[in-house]
Structure formats: C-alpha cells, structure tokens
Design brief:
The protein is an all-alpha fold. It has seven helices and no strands.
Length: 132
C-alpha cells in the first residue's frame, strides 16, 4: 500500500510539475482564462465532495492512459511516431476527463486548488489510491 501511495503522490506531483494545465492548454480552452493571483476560481471557492469524487475518477482515468502511452512510447521507432502517440494520449486524456463528468477547465481548476490545499491533496490521494 505504501508503494501505491508513493506512486500516486509522484503522479500527482508530476501532474503539477509538468504543468497541471497541460490538458487545458492543448484543448485550447485555457488561453487567456487564467485567474489573476489572489482571484478565487469556482474550484478554490467551494469544492463539493461530488466534485472531488469526479476529479478523482478523471485523475485515475488520465493516469491509466498516461501509463499505457508511456509504455507504448518506448516502442516508438522515431520522433514523429512518438509525437503522434503523445497527441493521441492528450486527446484520450481530455476525452476521459469529459467522460468523467468534468470539463477540462474544471479538472484543471481542481488540480490548481490541490496545489494550495494540502488537506485536499491528502483526501484526493487517499481516494485515488482506493480506486487504482
């Protein structure tokens, strides 16, 4: 269980280190819509239990896609094939988020809220560990 929780923590950290808004950036919906520092987004204002659960479902789905494509990238024969795989992975991740019941923007807002709320991060880690 400790290994799984450590892996989950690394995955959540990587989500933010790699630009937690990467999904929205490729989606095209994030441009020019970032809140100014100190401005509260709906996600940071009031996250309901349902929103957190939906985020966890989406996060788990995104992680599964990321793991699958990471393995597949090792077999890419050239850079063009690797880039095509990365694009396909991005599209599948966005689709998984939307199928979970969240927009990509909402997903990114919750991800940003996690960075500023250690208790919420812990809650998400525990829920995600149970679902992985």
């Amino acid at each position: 269980m400790t290994i799984r929780k450590t892996a989950l923590t690394i995955a959540l950290t990587a989500l933010f280190a790699a630009g937690g808004t990467a999904v929205a950036q490729s989606y095209g919906g994030g441009a020019g819509q970032a809140p100014t520092p100190g401005q509260t987004t709906p996600a940071t204002a009031a996250l309901t239990e349902q929103t957190v659960d939906t985020f966890v479902d989406a996060f788990v789905a995104v992680q599964e896609i990321r793991e699958d494509f990471t393995e597949r990238l090792h077999s890419a024969s050239d850079e063009a094939e690797a880039q095509a795989m990365q694009q396909e992975a991005q599209e599948k991740m966005m689709q998984a988020v939307e199928e979970s019941g969240m927009s990509v923007q909402e997903y990114n807002e919750v991800a940003m809220a996690l960075q500023n709320d250690p208790a919420l991060m812990q809650q998400v880690q525990e829920k995600a560990a149970d679902r992985m």
